[in-house]
Amino acid sequence: MTGHRTLRATLTALPLAAALGLGLAAPAGAEPPGIPDPATAKTQLDELKVAPEGSMDGYSREKFPHWIDGPDNCNTREAVLKRDGKDVQVGSDCYPTSGSWYSPYDGDTWTQPSDVDIDHVVPLAAAWRSGAADWTQEKRQQFANDLEGPQLIAVTDNVNQTKGDQTPDQWMPPLADYHCEYASMWIGSKHKYELTITDAEKSALQKALDGC
């Protein structure tokens, strides 16, 4: 299905589609760099510190400045749209004028960038609760705009909004076939930034990796 909301399958139907094997494989290049393979992800998971979630006191998205301009004057969102899309053409302002975006979370493809969100794989609020509250503003900005690790990915907007700031024990992508990859991205990002995980979070990630 392509970029028309009237043709979008309902989210409640997506798990059934995944169970029937109807999910499409993500096209090459439509994912962030630095995703650990399952064996590496298992090792990294064991290296993460397990601790209760911290408080949301003091949290604000403004403490994670994004989207910032890069050296080419394109901001981080525009850079991910270009990276994760297919046949993407951009105007002089870096905003895409054409292209398509496959969302591996739910299997939909979109032709309008307005239908696509850039997901922080580890949500900013979840990062705050697991160590980022103690970071400098500079480090939080790096985290929120990380184009070199598995932290940013283009996905269907309302799927991302359904996720919110939930951790893997509370939310996983509608396509079950993507749980392994999602868990690996989550672990890779938390490992890179030395964030903590809860017992429930670790159990959910281990279950997802066991299904790889």
UniProtKB/TrEMBL annotation:
<dbReference type="Pfam" id="PF07510">
    <property type="entry name" value="GmrSD_C"/>
</dbReference>
<dbReference type="InterPro" id="IPR011089">
    <property type="entry name" value="GmrSD_C"/>
</dbReference>
<feature type="signal peptide">
    <location>
        <begin position="1"/>
        <end position="30"/>
    </location>
</feature>
<protein>
    <recommendedName>
        <fullName>GmrSD restriction endonucleases C-terminal domain-containing protein</fullName>
    </recommendedName>
</protein>
<keyword id="KW-0732">Signal</keyword>
<feature type="domain" description="GmrSD restriction endonucleases C-terminal">
    <location>
        <begin position="102"/>
        <end position="207"/>
    </location>
</feature>
